[in-house]
Design brief:
heterodimer, A: 408 residues, alpha/beta, Peroxisomal Thiolase, Chain A, domain 1, 2 domains, two-stranded antiparallel sheet, 12 helices, globular, B: 173 residues, mainly beta, five-stranded mixed β-barrel, three-stranded antiparallel beta sheet, 1 helix, 39% strand
């Protein structure tokens, strides 16, 4: 981001409850999340003039949300997209402020991801099974291939073949994230699990996805608010500064990326060059990561792609304990998509913002004052001590990534 | 109306990247797009040539022989239409034609092959999935077809009698 480093901040975050039965419209969820982020930042409705969202025809639009909160916008855009969109929209928001269209931008994702529109195409009450195969789906749905677990599985299987990556290594991702979630009162799954729990859960797609290798599906909305560092210093929260951002960075042959070897190379291979160079830091400097853990395999590939582990050594990175709370570089301290909630990427960014404020909303009685016990045992603290520098790694598929580096 | 596993199978008359593919399949020919300018083949349907940007292309018949490059076993009816198939295999097949062409930025170590996705089906019945124990990376396969009606067919792959390209590998699960 060159000279834009440190010029923009995340000043407000908010989310609804994480559930599987919201019983409310995506409009109601979205309004609540945006309002919470606005209040978190100490902003009034007329102090937000930009709005961005992303969706898969399962959300509500910025005109509806802004209407319900009495905002008049100078720019809005509702983008098609899922994973990797959070960081991409942060990038767009910075551009909107930089070019003078807006001064403060809210970005949100609202979804009834379990009760209304399940991402994998599995029928939910409000969205029946596909009855027609046409267009690009001729190449996939004709073969019973529609869900994310299926779409990514060729990469997962090939990685296991080429590098000997094991189900036990993958299960460890879920184990560690469940430990983190046990210290997160908001998490949908707060129970700690073992490697055996994962390996004995039923298969969804072999060879890499038992049920517990897959993330939770939930109903929720999430919101982040971005403004300039100049404005941020007058707001309610300690600003979290954006050092760099990369949004939707791809590999060649995006249309059918399995044509392009090595298929085990995540697009972070390219994204890392943008975020580390612009931020002026190295992977070794990062103290906290947030990975898009749609599956236990996706953090492994992101760690390799972004250079935290060499190709083929992601499994060792996971079992080394580095990414556990109390380790050198904890990952997904809220529990992430595997345990906290599925928000299409935003809850991991929200978590890193709270971590950098030193206000992880755990069970420590005085977390709001930034006072923590740092006792990471079950039901305890999940604040990373003295964390200054955090990174998010977004995933949409093996051939597409995004990233965000932030500092306290 | 063309149906497949209870779903409408609709190839629009203006779907220029798909129409010919399924019509040729009905003649039991597996086709890929061939660029009329640089001559390279494409593993996935597209409107332009990713190697040279040419918009001119023709259908080119390929042998239909290849090697399993990766695979998956679907053990749950994520799509209800496939309930009677579970567990079934989806395979990523490296076709014999045009393997590992260096991509433009050769220094990145990226190579482009002609790959197709299909189910691995029984050699004697393309409407039934192959047993999961028989699915492995490195095994040789050949194309076969499920006729949908008089005009369209769906290509599938089945294990061939050729020896495997390398020691076959399947996950120990």
């Amino acid at each position: 981001m060159g000279n834009l480093k440190d010029k923009y901040c995340i000043v407000g975050v908010g989310e609804t409850d994480y559930s599987r039965n919201s019983g409310r419209s995506v409009r109601a969820l979205g309004v609540e999340a945006v309002r919470k982020a606005m209040n978190d930042a100490g902003l009034k409705p007329d102090e937000i003039d930009g709005m961005l969202s992303y969706h898969g025809n399962d959300s509500t639009t910025a005109p509806a949300i802004s209407h319900d909160l009495g905002m008049r916008l100078n720019f809005y855009m509702d983008c098609s997209g899922g994973g990797s969109s959070t960081e991409a929209l942060v990038s767009l928001a910075i551009g909107l402020i930089e070019n003078g269209n807006c001064h403060t931008v809210a970005l949100y994702r609202s979804m009834n991801g379990y009760s209304e529109a399940r991402i994998g195409g599995t029928p939910a009450a409000a969205r029946p099974a596909a009855a027609t195969i046409t267009g690009p789906a001729l190449e996939s749905l004709s073969y019973g291939l529609s869900s994310a677990a299926q779409n990514f599985q060729f990469t997962f299987a090939r990685h296991m073949y080429e590098y000997g990556t094991t189900s036990e290594q993958l299960a460890t991702v879920k184990v560690i994230h469940s430990e983190h979630a046990s210290n997160n009162p908001k998490a949908y799954y707060k129970k700690r699990v073992t490697v055996d729990d994962v390996l004995s859960s039923r298969w969804v797609v072999k060879p890499a996805c038992h049920l517990l290798d897959c993330c939770v599906e939930t109903d929720n909305a999430t919101c982040i608010i971005i403004t300039s560092a100049d404005r941020a210093r007058y707001l309610k929260q300690r600003p979290v500064h954006i050092l760099s951002v990369a949004g939707r960075v791809g590999k060649p042959f995006q249309g059918m990326h399995y044509q392009c070897d090595p298929i085990t190379r995540q697009a972070g291979y390219y994204g890392s060059r943008i975020v580390f160079r612009q931020a002026g830091v190295e992977p070794e400097d990062i103290q906290l990561t947030g990975c898009y853990d749609a599956f236990t395999f996706t953090p492994l590939l992101l760690f390799e792609g972004f250079g935290f582990a060499r190709p083929g050594e992601g499994g060792d990175y996971i079992t080394s304990g580095v990414m556990r709370l109390g380790g050198k570089r904890p990952n997904n301290t809220s529990g992430g998509h595997l345990c906290e909630a599925y928000t299409h990427g935003m809850n991991m960014v929200i978590e890193n913002v709270r971590q950098l404020r030193h206000q992880a909303d755990d069970s420590c009685p005085r977390w709001q004052e930034g006072i923590h016990t740092y006792d990471h045992r079950e039901g305890g603290c999940r604040q990373v001590k003295d964390v200054e520098l955090a990174m998010n790694m977004g995933w949409a598929m093996p051939a597409l990534c995004s990233s965000l580096i932030m500092r306290r | 109306m063309t149906m497949y596993k209870g779903m409408r199978f609709v190839v629009s008359p203006v779907d220029s990247e798909h129409r010919g593919f399924y019509e040729h399949a009905r003649q039991h020919r597996l086709m890929v797009q061939k660029c009329s300018d640089c001559g390279l083949l494409r593993g996935a349907p597209g409107a332009g040539c990713p190697f040279c940007t040419s918009l001119k292309w023709t259908w080119q018949q390929v042998s239909g022989k290849g090697t399993i490059y990766s695979y998956q076993i679907v053990t749950q009816a994520i799509q209800p239409a496939f309930r009677d198939w579970v567990p079934y295999a989806i395979v990523l097949v490296d076709l014999d034609e045009q393997r590992r062409v260096p991509w433009r930025n050769a220094e990145e170590g990226e190579y482009i092959s002609v790959r197709m996705v299909a189910n691995l089906v029984k050699p004697n019945d393309p409407t039934k999935p192959e047993d999961q124990e028989n699915v492995a990376i490195g095994k040789r396969v050949e194309v076969c077809f499920i006729d949908l009606d008089d005009k369209l067919a769906l290509p599938q792959f089945r294990l061939s009698n050729e020896p495997p390209e390398h020691t076959p590998w399947r996950a120990p699960v």
